[in-house]
């Protein structure tokens, strides 16, 4: 455009004047296009800002609901959260438990990932689900307490009986037939929205670390909420687990803990 002949220049030819006019129109068209693009970007930025504000408002409401749930469980939010907004990882006290580890030295099975769904009712259990099974009543009679991690292989609604096998891959696959009251489903998810946390002092059955056997315990610290909206580990105090230093506090995964039902 700088080399184009000015329309007011002496001796300007008609062809030069046409070139100047064409270039001027192109510049005006480009200016209009750039203005439209700039205005569109401003509009999109305003829409993004409104979207962020809306999501922030929803998140604030969810946080209020979550804090209320924690308070209802007797958890002090200010005490439970550290400086970065998440619970600090618990460092468990590991005491020697020779007799229990020696008697139940089987490796702890991996809990498979299930599709999350609310409730742990008997009617929701399916073949392949992991459960706590009191096999002690079969060999020692009513009142016996020998709970193991088992896998459901069959359920007979008419009899109200479950057939389960030991979940330990190295164990003999003996089929146990147990009434419903001796079978407790393990949590299928650790999702905060679809799971039940237990407050301090709750009596539970929990898989003792490095075994596939359940023992009675009490909750010392409820499971902490993790950044991914799932529960982490409980801190538990198992019965008869003390030594010269007192009761041992042990960390147990959320999905290895169930409510202790005294009728079982």
CATH class of the largest domain: Mainly Beta
What's the average pLDDT?
Answer: 77
Shape: elongated
- Biggest sheet layout: 10 strands, antiparallel
Structural class: alpha+beta
Q: Tally the helices: what do you get?
A: 4
Beta-strand content estimate: 15-25%
- Low-confidence runs: 80-121
Order of helices and strands: HHHEHEEEEEEEEE
For the CA atoms, what is the radius of gyration?
A: 33 Å
- The helical percent reads 25-40%
* Record field, number of beta strands: 10
How far apart are the first and last residues' alpha carbons, in Å? Answer: 93 Å
CATH arch. level architecture of the largest domain? Roll
Q: In words, what does this structure look like?
A:
The chain folds into two domains: 13-72; 98-259, Roll (SH3 type barrels), CATH 2.30.30.140. The protein has four helices and ten strands; from the N terminus they run H-H-H-E-H-E-E-E-E-E-E-E-E-E. It has helices at 14-72, 77-80, 98-103, 136-140, and strands at 130-134, 147-156, 161-166, 176-179, 183-185, 203-207, 213-221, 233-238, 250-253, 257-259. The protein is an alpha+beta fold and 264 residues long. It is 28% helix and 21% strand. Strands 1, 2, 3, 4, 5, 6, 7, 8, 9 and 10 form a ten-stranded antiparallel sheet that branches.
